[in-house]
Design brief:
It contains five helices and six strands; from the N terminus they run αββββααββαα. It is α+β, with helices and mostly antiparallel strands and 132 residues long. Strands 1-2-3-4-6-5 form a six-stranded antiparallel β-sheet. α3 runs antiparallel to α4. It starts with 9 loop residues before the first helix and ends with a helix.
């Protein structure tokens, strides 16, 4: 399966590649693969111990950054909601029409906070769910 970046402009690819680099360097507990998020194929998936943690996707209308850390921690959502960026914030994802709408400095701030947030309750929850 190929990633969605094959369909992007050079500027968009560069921005998404920078986000990918930030995810993997800021949170070394995750491994990157290409897969499906909801119904969208070719997404970048980041898992910790086999559990989904982050994702980058492109739909027909927007880009999305998905985060289980953000879903479980309102403090991380607050970093985004208090910014001036043109982002559509949901509980566990951020949608943005253009790559420049999600400033790299803001993304880095979100990732630094996410990487230091205790993810173990989510790991335990999903691993216990798998056992059933």
């Amino acid at each position: 399966m190929s990633s969605f970046t094959e369909l992007l402009t050079k500027v968009e690819t560069k921005a998404i590649d920078k986000m990918r680099e930030i995810i993997t360097t800021t949170d070394p507990t995750v491994s990157e693969s290409i897969g499906k998020i909801m119904s969208q194929e070719g997404c970048y998936i980041y898992k910790q111990e086999g559990v989904f943690k982050y994702g980058l996707a492109k739909t027909k209308n927007h880009f999305s950054f998905h985060s289980m850390v953000m879903y479980a921690n309102a403090e991380i959502r607050e970093i985004i909601s208090t910014s001036d960026a043109k982002l559509k914030l949901q509980k566990g994802c951020v949608n943005f029409t253009h790559v420049e709408d999600f400033p790299i400095k803001l993304f880095m701030k979100v990732m630094k906070q996410s990487a230091t947030t205790d993810f173990s309750p989510i790991l335990v929850h999903y691993k216990n769910k798998e056992k059933k």
